[in-house]
Amino acid sequence: MCNSSNEGKEFTLRYIQRYLNNIESPRLLDVGVGQGTYYSLLNQHLHHPFWTGIEIYNPYIERFRLRERYDQILNIDVRTFTPDHKETYHVILCGDVLEHMTKEQAVATVARLHKHCDILVISIPIRKWPQHADENPWQEHVKDDWTTQDVMQTFDTIIASEVGTGVGVFITKGNLNLANPEKND
Q1: For labelling alongside 1, which of 124, 150, 178, 185 has CA 20 to 30 A away?
Q2: pTM beyond 0.90
Q3: Which CATH class is domain 9-179?
């Protein structure tokens, strides 16, 4: 299953559109691309964005023609991905990703990615949501019982959120300030 709930997508679109409103050629990293949901949601609303996508399951890259949409596609596991120190992104999207790993792996992944972005978007089921692997062995929900409280206590850099009946979207502050470089220390 490489698609996701529509809950939180409108909030994500509005927040990112507002955040990147005056940015020419914003850089986005889409983690766990699947069928390219976030690309489809955001691309037409941004000014010449540069998209990097991470997709662990190689067959999705061909099936959903991701190389035709993304500027760069990486067939890797985000848990072992460490961007080069020069790689920076205005926005990193972790949509329907963190529930596919242990809590410890999710915390380590977010901490590593925060060093390379302005903001990081977490979209995650916030109730018990078991999911088993289909053809894609990485589809199984490893931690299938995140709650809003658990997310809020685990990630202490949340600056905005919207919680639905099944999915929560949490915007976290990264370590960079690319959108407002004059405010960088």
Answers
A1: 150
A2: yes
A3: alpha beta
Residue by residue, pLDDT tens for the chain (185 residues) are 455 678 999 999 999 999 999 999 999 999 999 999 999 999 999 999 999 999 999 999 999 999 999 999 999 999 999 888 889 999 999 999 999 999 999 999 999 999 999 999 999 999 876 567 778 766 777 788 999 999 999 999 999 999 999 999 999 999 998 887 665 44
Cα-based torsion angle of the residue sequence 71, 75, 81, 86 in order, rounded to the nearest 10 degrees:
-20
Closest CA to 159 of 144, 177, 143, 141: 177
Nearest to 163 by CA among 106, 119, 124, 128: 124
